[in-house]
Amino acid sequence: MAKKRTSKKIAPISSDIKPSIFAFLKTRQAQTILGSFLVFFSIFLTIAFISFFFNWQEDQSTLTKLTDKTVRSKNLLGKIGASLSHFFIYKGFGIGAFLIAFQVFLSGIYIIFQKKFSKIIISWNWGLLAMLWISITLGFLHKKYALLSGIVGFEINEYLQAFIGKTGLTIVLAFFLIAYLVVRYKLTFDAFIEKMKQKRIENQEKRLASENETKTLDDDSEKTENQNIELKNTIKETKEKSEFELSVENLKPTISKHSDVGSKKEELTLKVEKELEPELKVEETVEDINDVGIDIAIGREEEHSTENLSDKLVKDFGEFDPTLELANFKFPTFNLLKQYNETISIDPEELEANKDRIVETLKNYKIGIAEIKATVGPTITLYEIVPEAGIRISKIKNLEDDIALSLSALGIRIIAPIPGKGTIGIEVPNKKSTIVSMHSVISSKKFQESPMELPIALGKTISNETFVVDLAKMPHLLMAGATGQGKSVGLNAVLTSLLYKKHPAEVKFILVDPKKVELTLFNKIERHYLAKLPDVEEAIITDTTKVVHTLNSLCIEMDNRYDLLKAAMVRNIKEYNVKFKQRKLNPNDGHQFLPYIVLVIDEFADLIMTAGKEVETPIARLAQLARAIGIHLIVATQRPSVNVITGIIKANFPARIAFRVTSKIDSRTILDAGGADQLIGRGDLLYTAGNDINRIQCAFVDTPEVEKITDFIGSQKAYAEAYLLPEYVDDESGTTVDIDIADRDKLFREAAEIIVIAQQGSASLLQRKLKLGYNRAGRLIDQLEAAGIVGGFEGSKARQVLVTDIVALDQLLENEKNQ
Ligand SMILES: Nc1ncnc2c1ncn2[C@@H]1O[C@H](COP(=O)(O)OP(=O)(O)OP(=O)(O)O)[C@@H](O)[C@H]1O
Predict the structure, then answer these.
(1) Is the pLDDT of residue 491 over 70?
(2) If you measure from the C-alpha of residue 566 to the centroid of ligand 1, how many angstroms do you get, rounded to a whole number?
(3) Which ligand 1 atom sits closest to the C-alpha of 515?
(4) In which order are the strands placed within the sheet that holds 655-658?
(5) What is the pLDDT of residue 259?
(6) CB 577 within 8 A of CB 592
(7) Ligand 1 center to residue 513 CA distance, Å?
């Protein structure tokens, strides 16, 4: 017993230390220290080896007296240098041992620059092979100087010579040299011929070019040709001039009274005649020189090179890497996420009791059961029932409500039939539910190895499998659920999934959070992952005016992106980015790598209530058109009523997530089917992408976990600023329409005072203080502008307040009355 206890105590300590040592070895500091050590050690070895070649005879005697202080070695690096060199050069590989120093140096550099470990191993393999070859070859060539080959080279050489003779060994060594070059440096015969050909072509081109040059210099006829061209031009000019002259003549009658005009015209005619003279000469020369060869080879070559420009660029610089600016960006690690005990405990008694109740209930409705199978999930158990022969599924479907009532447990859902199977499913909640941690879904193979564009690990299915969906395919997601049922956790799970999978260069978020508390943590990753309007301070949008501007700006971004796609002749963002990476699109033409943009709106109902059509129209437009250009919308709402999720919005959001809702009607609004009212809450959800409905237990990610992740990302090097959306200028707010004093809003005076006291001309301020809707607040601002109290529209900035204090305001309004 005593023994057992001690072993139990020790085990966790040692297993704790191991990971921490490994963790340290994986840090940049450890890598830099190890790498630098190897580089310096290689320098040490090189100096020792060189010095050894000059002093090895004198140092022989010191090798056995390593610990004797009085004995000194002549090697520059002392007795250690002498001993190491003796070991590697004399007893080892002779001159070839320098390759060991070189390999140590390379390994150090590889570690410093974080190259793969496998690369170091491969480099050592090749290095050791080369060293062996050099050692044996030197042993073969210089038998007398055994130091050149070392004992290893010498002995192997002796051994091989005894077996295959000198000639045989020559052949073997030559063969190995060729094999090495072919495999290591890919020096094939074809490549060699190709290289020779290329060289020949280059030489020919050079020769041609120099010949052309000399021709230009030497050939007089070339000069004449130039003259010819010049003169031709002059003839053209003269011709034009004579036309001019004609027109002057035409004008003659009207200006004949002016005597000086006549003399000018004479001058002109004379000039023309003079210049016409050489024309004949020139024609002669043209004929004479017509034989001069016209070199069109250069033109053809240019065509060739432009065709392959992208290939050439890729060859020279590699494919474009959008992540290069933040090349050292580290994705969040798994240990930032909390782990829970996730083993599903099955209580056989509970299972048996539920089964009995199901069988009994169905029997009451005269439905016999042939077979029953239970699948235990994290929060619910699915009882799959095969009805007896002859029982129609539709009968069970019609009795759905009655059966549910009889089973009377909260959260029972009947699926009759289970799609694709002839069976009926009855989902019964487990007494003890298991939390599905974000850690388990993020670290699952299914998520990690998913080839999706925007993978989202939503949670786990009834059969405890990780459920991963692609946001890019959805392409927009509608999320609804009554308060406290797991919506915010769901949104965080979606965002966390993308943070674990996508580099900041690949995806940008626009976060709309009218509740102002749910998404604030993401502020820390503003310069990595968020997008915002220019001149806006906070990237996370909390007021309605800015939402309207952002949505409209996103529509402009959408149109711009469509233009880019059109110019690149591709159909979607994926193809566009592939083409851009292959350097087939010129950044000078406005092309750039396009990140996905994910717009997340928490509490959509609030927005629709305050801004109505102003929000609905751009959202509908984006939802209809934005799929191809990588803009995806995630809209969450507490109230899935039809005036929030309008027909037009619903039609464009095929993917829906329903957490528990309070009524069947709400469930139908969001899913077009019942069921969401029977969920058990706490992240229990139904997901549909248009056809089947899946019951999923949403992965749980707590606020401290999100904080850790955003801290981890936020502490790393970021872009200079958030991703900027195009500027949007509100058409209406720029109006300078003179509004009649009589037509002013009843709250005009009050609004003016609020604005002047706060010295901030924003509609949202009025909305808050006067509890107004967005439209009325906007109209008030227009009236204040017309009255000269606030300045004009300045993009996303608040308007300037033109009146300094209440006294000035009183005066202004008094003057108005008197006018
Ligand atoms: N996937 C989950 N697993 C376990 N518990 C969960 C899960 N999701 C939510 N919960 C529990 O439910 C609580 C409420 O969740 P959440 O804050 O996401 O609700 P909500 O729908 O966003 O509410 P509101 O709309 O009022 O903000 C959480 O604090 C948590 O305890």
Answers:
(1) yes
(2) 44
(3) 27
(4) 466-470, 455-460, 693-698, 684-688, 655-658, 477-480, 631-637, 596-601, 507-512
(5) 36
(6) no
(7) 16
Beta bridge partners of 510: 599
Q: Is residue 44 part of a domain?
A: yes
- Both tokens assigned to 499: 């943070």
Ligand 1: distance of its center to the CA of 620 in Å?
Answer: 28
491, 477 in Cβ contact below 8 A? Answer: no
**CATH number of the domain bearing residue 411:** 3.30.980.40
| Pocket of ligand 1 contains residue 150 by CB under 6 Å | no
Q: Which domain holds residue 224?
A: 220-289
What tokens appear for 532 in the block?
């915002």
Ligand 1, pocket-test mutation among 338, 379, 682, most atoms within 8 A of CB: 682
Nearest CA owner, ligand 1 atom 10: 682
Same domain, 479 and 627: yes
Taking CA atoms, 275 is separated from 194, 369, 461, in Å, by: 57, 113, 93
- What per-residue confidence (pLDDT) applies to 315? 67
| Total domains in the fold of the chain | 6
* Residue range 577-593, pLDDT digits in tens: 998 988 888 888 888 89
250 lies in the same domain as 388: no
**Phi and psi torsions of 801, nearest 5°:** -95, 125
Predicted ipTM beyond 0.95: yes
**Comparing 243 with 310, which gets the higher pLDDT?**
310
Q: Choose the residue to mutate in 430, 436, 485 for probing ligand 1, maximizing ligand atoms within 8 Å of C-beta.
A: 485
Of 673, 700, 724, the residue that ends a domain is 724
User: Which atom of ligand 1 has the smallest separation from the CA of 485?
Assistant: 21
Of the pLDDT bands very low, low, confident and very high (cuts 50, 70, 90), residue 234 is: very low
Rg (Cα) of the chain, in Å, rounded? 42
Q: Tell how far the Cα of 705 is from the centroid of ligand 1, in angstroms.
A: 14
640 CA → ligand 1 middle, Å: 17
Residue-wise pLDDT for 781-814, tens only, equals: 888 888 888 887 776 677 888 888 888 888 888 8
Task: Provide the annotated binding site.
Answer: 481-488
Going by C-alpha positions, the residue among 484, 498, 174 that lies closest to residue 331 is: 498
Residue 432: exposure state from Cβ atoms within 10 A (0-12, 13-18, ≥19): exposed
CA-closest residue to ligand 1 atom 23: 484
400-419: string of b/e by CB count within 10 Å (b at 16+)? beebbebbeeebbbbbbbee
Q: Which of 483, 477, 434, 484 is nearest to 458 (CA)?
A: 477
Tell me the CA–centroid distance for residue 433 and ligand 1, in Å: 15
Residue with CA at minimum distance from ligand 1 atom 14: 484
Query: Is residue 243's pLDDT more than 70?
Result: no
CB 638 within 8 A of CB 664: no
Residues 180 and 213 in one domain: no
- Ligand 1 pocket residue status of 486, Cβ below 6 Å: yes
Q: What is the pLDDT of residue 18?
A: 53
What is the per-residue pLDDT for 536? 82
- Give, using CA atoms, the residue closest to atom 11 of ligand 1: 682
